[in-house]
Structures are given as structure tokens and as C-alpha cells.
From TrEMBL:
PANTHER family: HYDROLASE ALPHA/BETA FOLD FAMILY, PEROXISOMAL MEMBRANE PROTEIN LPX1
Protein name: AB hydrolase-1 domain-containing protein
Domain of life of the source: Bacteria
Residue ranges of every copy of the AB hydrolase-1 domain listed in the record: 21-152
Lineage: Bacteria, Pseudomonadati, Pseudomonadota, Alphaproteobacteria, Hyphomicrobiales
Length: 273
């Protein structure tokens, strides 16, 4: 593990391989370790780099720190990380709230992006003005209400399983390995910050998506909540240069649940772009 200063903070990262850089961006309740099984597959062709976002393990973390959902701020951290590492352009592989951050990064810094692979960003702003957007948001929010209440109260033992099962379906938490469960616990502070923050949630829009010309692979889990499928539907309309894939038998955490299928799809896409 290495550490690097970027955007006024210190970020932990690991890297493997040589070649064009690929940056891996984790989701909520996760850190650079979620990509451990992926890096060796990419290292044959690329310089594969996985980092922990601000306020995530093993970086300094606090419930009063940067919330997980501050996608605009995390996007600027990603840009600063790329500058600090040295490459002029990168490919990005990102999951969930990390993919939301990658959207902000790509829209604000298009000159830094070669291509993107984004799995289910919770970019709820994409649903504004759609016929069923309000209903989809209400349904999804209802599934997570009890989880957010427990997380806000600092009850990780109750809040983390409720959240994971709310996003991934019944039994999703129970199917996770002990290693992944420990990673979720290690990153509880940033998610508690997300539940407690008064910081306005950033809104990523269709107009912002239209500015991203880099080739973009959009992925869904076949069994993921409608919320994520509808967001990908809208991104597919708004992004000028995109392809779409659905990973069979997976829910939201596609890179962990179907590692081989996800990597195969991303590597095939990057080989063309």
C-alpha cells in the first residue's frame, strides 16, 4: 500500500502492472480492498490502481468528515489523484457511489478520460422529469429508511445489514464473506457521515452527461433494484458514446458478486476503446 497527497488530503492506494493507467473507484462501505481480485487480471495490460476515497479506510475517517454521497467532491479528489500520479489520461472502473463520483470527474475534466466503465451509479438526478422517477425514488428510499436511521444512530450491527439487504435484496449481506463484512464495518464512519450530513446532495443531470464524450460502458446487475436500472436507462439516453451490459445472476454489487463476468465485460470494452 502506498499513500499520496491529493486535493489537501492523503489517499491510500495500491497498484499492479504497467501500461496505460486504469483507476478503480470503490462504492459505499468499501475501500481499495474491494478490487483486490480484479487488479491481477488488468495488470497484464494496464497499470491498475485502486485507491480509497477520502474518509474511507485506511485513510483518516470520521462521522463528521466527507460523506460517501458527496460525488462532486469525490470527483475532484479523483482528478487530483490522477494529477498527483502523473498520467495525462486514464481509464476508470467505478462502482456505485464511486461511479457517481466518476461521472462528475468525467464531466468536469473530459480531457483526463480515455474511457469509463460504470456500474450502477446512484445518480438520482437522472430521474428528474421522467414519468416514473418520483415513484422509483420513493420506493427505493423506503427500502433504506430503517437502515439510515440505524446508521445515523451509530448502530453498525443493525444498520449495515439493513443497508446491504435494502440495496442488494434479501440475504445479500449474509452472502458476503467475512472479509467483505469487516470491510463494511471498517468504513462505517463515512456512511454515518452520509446519514448525518447537512451538505446538499450533488445532482448529476442529463446535460452534464451530454458533455462526456469518452466511450462509456454502463453495467447493471440483472437482479438489481429498479432504481439502478432506470438510472442506467437515462444515462444510456444522455451519454453520447456508450454501450450497455447486464450481468446475469447479480444484484447491485456486480464487481464482487460476478467478478469474472464483470472483468471480462470491462476488458473487452477497453480493448476496443
Amino acid at each position: 500500500m502506498k499513500r499520496i497527497s491529493a486535493n489537501g488530503t492523503e489517499l491510500a492506494y495500491v497498484e499492479l502492472g504497467r501500461g496505460d493507467p486504469v483507476i478503480f473507484v470503490h462504492g459505499g462501505l468499501q475501500d481499495y480492498r474491494m478490487w483486490a481480485g480484479h487488479l491481477p487480471k488488468f495488470a497484464d495490460r494496464y497499470r491498475a490502481i485502486a485507491y480509497s476515497r477520502r474518509n474511507n479506510f485506511p485513510n483518516e475517517s470520521s462521522p463528521e468528515g466527507m460523506p460517501d454521497g458527496a460525488a462532486d467532491a469525490h470527483g475532484e479528489d479523483l482528478a487530483a489523484l490522477v494529477r498527483a500520479l502523473g498520467p495525462s489520461k486514464v481509464r476508470v472502473v467505478a462502482h456505485s457511489s464511486g461511479a457517481h463520483a466518476a461521472l462528475f470527474f468525467a464531466a468536469s475534466h473530459p480531457e483526463m478520460v480515455t474511457s469509463l466503465a460504470l456500474n450502477e451509479p446512484p445518480a438520482a438526478g437522472m430521474l428528474a422529469g421522467t414519468s416514473d422517477g418520483a415513484d422509483v425514488l420513493k420506493e427505493f428510499g423506503g427500502k433504506l429508511a430503517a437502515a439510515r436511521e440505524a446508521i445515523r444512530a451509530g448502530n453498525a450491527e443493525v444498520g449495515i445489514p439493513l443497508f446491504v439487504n435494502g440495496v442488494g435484496g434479501a440475504g445479500a449481506y449474509e452472502r458476503r464473506s467475512d472479509v467483505d463484512k469487516q470491510m463494511n464495518l471498517d468504513n462505517f464512519a463515512t456512511y454515518r457521515a452520509d446519514a448525518m450530513t447537512k451538505r446538499p446532495r450533488p445532482v448529476f443531470t442529463c446535460d452534464m452527461a451530454k458533455t462526456i464524450n469518452a466511450p462509456t460502458l454502463l453495467s447493471n446487475g440483472e437482479l438489481s433494484p429498479k432504481f439502478f436500472h432506470r438510472i442506467i436507462d437515462q444515462l444510456a439516453i444522455c451519454l453520447p458514446n456508450q454501450e450497455r451490459t447486464t450481468i446475469a445472476g447479480s444484484s447491485h454489487t456486480v464487481p464482487s458478486e460476478k467478478l469474472d463476468a464483470f472483468d471480462q465485460a470491462v476488458l473487452a470494452f477497453f480493448s476496443k476503446h
